[in-house]
Specification:
The protein is mainly α. 72% of the residues lie in helices and 0% in strands.
Length: 210
């Protein structure tokens, strides 16, 4: 029981550190993570970090994994509750907007921050960030393909192209909401994807009008 208790406390400590790391990285990037700052924020001794990670790169890689898990639970899982097809595709975009709008992360989006940080830095962290982006775009493409197969999107739709457009519009909401339009960015970003999908949907009544 004592061993199990220590293991549980260790797991909770590790998860608290990763949650804080992802939060800070959304503002300062992964290279901006300071072990001292994380230790203070989580009430963990610096020596305690080395019971979980041997070096900063290991921490960065685990932070990416935690961010993927957070995104899956907060964005992907709610969208999957919608009916398959075009409604699920739009539900994914709306779940993404809700994630940003709720201020889950102080910087808006972990991946928006670290993609720009690691796009020209070869190494294990870049590879993991790249894979996360590849998997995310692949997921959107699968939803587009599903909608096409169900006849809820025009058969001429290129899933890769539409997935790219939806993701790009989502990313711009992070930037514009902070530097330009504020709350209006969410309205514009939602409407842009909605109008695009309605124009491609043989039965636009499946989607909201606005």
């Amino acid at each position: 029981m004592t061993t199990d208790g220590r293991r549980l406390r260790g797991l909770r400590s590790r998860e608290a550190i990763l949650e804080q790391a992802v939060s800070l990285a959304s503002i300062e990037g992964l290279n901006g993570l300071s072990l001292g700052r994380l230790a203070t924020a989580t009430g963990t001794s610096k020596s305690g970090f080395f019971s979980h990670w041997q070096d900063k790169e290991e921490l960065q890689l685990d932070a990416v994994e935690w961010a993927v898990r957070q995104w899956t639970e907060a964005v992907v899982a709610p969208a999957m509750q919608a009916p398959p097809g075009v409604r699920r595709l739009f539900a994914l975009h709306e779940a993404r907007l809700k994630f940003y709008g709720d201020g889950v992360l102080p910087g808006g989006c972990f991946f928006f921050s670290v993609q720009a940080e690691f796009d020209d830095r070869p190494g294990a962290v870049r590879d993991r960030v790249s894979r996360a982006l590849h998997d995310w775009l692949g997921f959107i493409r699968r939803l587009v393909g599903e909608a096409v197969a169900l006849g809820e999107l025009d058969g001429s739709v290129d899933p890769a192209q539409l997935a790219y457009e939806i993701d790009a519009l989502g990313e711009m909401i992070v930037l514009h909401s902070r530097l330009h339009d504020g709350p209006a960015a969410y309205v514009h970003g939602r409407r842009a994807v909605l109008q695009r999908l309605r124009a491609l949907c043989p039965d636009p009544a499946l989607l909201p009008e606005d």
